[in-house]
Amino acid sequence: MSNESHCNMPTEPDYTGVEIVEISPETPLNDYLQAMDLAKDEAAKHYEDAMLLAWYDKDRDFESPQHASECHVNSAIPGYIDYALYHGATLKIDIEQGRFIFFYLSIDF
Fold it and tell me: pLDDT higher for 40 or 9?
């Protein structure tokens, strides 16, 4: 009997249909609150109305939804990313090369 996994777990997220915006301010942000404000402003440039689906704060190693990564311990894809993509995220805002990441869904009607 083989110990090989027959599960086809992806090693990279599938960002098909997701616009990715990378922001690198000249002056590093002080904290998550500044990053949140910057992400909200950026999302407003893309959508009239947007819903924040998931986010990650590397400084505090904190994610939302909370504990989403607990079931992804051996996965290459963090839980907050899987959650966002599974729930239809269409915009990823990456601030300071992964220091803060925000996923949004357009709710424009």
Answer: 40
